[in-house]
Design brief:
The strands form three sheets. A six-stranded mixed beta sheet has the order 2-3-1-4-11-5, with helices on both faces. Strands 8-7-9-6-10 form a five-stranded mixed beta sheet. Strands 13-14-12-15 form a four-stranded antiparallel beta sheet. The protein is an alpha/beta fold. Helix content is 27%, strand content 32%. The structure holds adenosine-5'-triphosphate and magnesium ion. Adenosine-5'-triphosphate binds next to helix 3. The site of magnesium ion has 3 residues, from loops.
Length: 285
């Protein structure tokens, strides 16, 4: 069987979670020492480890069939690749920030200003779209220091909690894009490899669905059973079995993490008791 080749960041904020995702998808790699390349014995897959900046180009060229990168890197490189799956981790945003005491009303205030960034393409596209002309200074790292050393009036950089900005005396004034880890794919993957890719994506979705959902069991008074069932509809519909005690049923279902607390409150109002919430290992969707 032909192997699918995936490019993963060698070391950085995407590496660990990407490898964990493969592991949870049942893909075990034969060397964890992270050389340039490793293979799986449990799945027809080969991993190559690269700097994240290089991944979009390697995927466009077909050196790797697919890759995992931050959406920001995908947008910056403007490579001829397809975004085929969002992975939900390494969430961050690309924002413009200025020294905290500087005034700011709108993007127009950046006209004629110097903006430092590692994302010149994204910045240029955004400024152009909004009819703003600024001087873009490309830096490969430590962008947040640029204003304090007089190199720039503003920056465009990755923000997650915002604490780096604060500790450098900056404030966020515009969010330009939101980003998360994504799978990108070459546009000409041949049939055999495509079948392996489809299998991988199916497994990844099962892993993600499981981590976004919980299994819930509870005891319900029969007089409120219908309302309780309506509150936790589950994948198809809940399992309901009678308890030994008359007038009560056991209800099993699946709940998404997002609606969790709201639903729990509602269930308690409806007289549900003995509520158990259990993590799901895999969820076949
Ligand atoms: P490389 O050496 O591979 O070029 P890098 O230094 O460019 O690595 P990292 O800092 O490891 O990149 O970040 C990789 C990706 O993780 C970023 O492109 C972004 O999508 C995401 N990311 C960056 N910083 C954060 C953060 N603070 N929180 C969450 N995600 C982040
Ligand atoms: Mg990089």
């Amino acid at each position: 069987m032909k192997k699918l080749r995936i490019a993963i960041q060698k070391s950085g904020r995407l590496s660990e979670k990407s490898l964990l995702l493969l592991k949870e998808a049942g893909i075990f790699l034969n060397n964890s020492s992270r050389k340039l390349k490793s293979e799986s014995q449990s799945f027809p897959l080969e991993v190559i480890y690269l700097r994240d900046d290089d991944i979009p180009q390697y995927v466009e060229d077909g050196v790797a069939h697919i890759g995992i990168v931050g959406e920001n890197e995908f947008a910056e490189k403007e490579c001829e690749v397809d975004l085929i799956e969002r992975l939900g981790y390494s969430r961050c945003r690309l924002s413009i920030a200025i020294p905290k005491s500087d005034s700011y009303d709108s993007l127009k205030d950046l006209n004629g200003k110097r903006i430092a960034t590692s994302y010149p393409v994204i910045l240029e596209n955004y400024l152009q779209k909004h009819g703003v002309k600024a001087d873009i200074h490309v830096l490969s790292g430590s962008v947040e220091l640029a204003p304090s050393i007089g190199m720039a009036d503003a920056i465009l950089d990755i923000v997650s909690s915002g604490s780096t900005l604060i500790s450098n005396g900056l404030r966020e004034v515009e969010v330009i894009m939101k980003s998360e880890a994504v799978v990108i794919a070459n546009r000409n993957i041949d049939g055999d490899v495509k079948a392996v890719l489809n299998d991988l994506i199916f497994r990844i979705r099962s892993v993600m669905a499981a981590s976004n959902n919980k299994y819930i069991l509870l005891n319900a008074p029969n007089e409120n059973l219908e309302q309780i069932i309506a509150t936790i509809p589950g994948m198809k519909s809940p399992t309901v079995t009678p308890l030994a005690e008359a007038g009560w049923s056991s209800v099993h279902s699946v709940l998404s993490e997002k609606e969790f607390w709201g639903v729990i409150d509602r269930l308690r109002e409806l007289g549900a008791q003995g509520i158990l919430v259990i993590p799901i290992e895999k969820m076949i969707v």
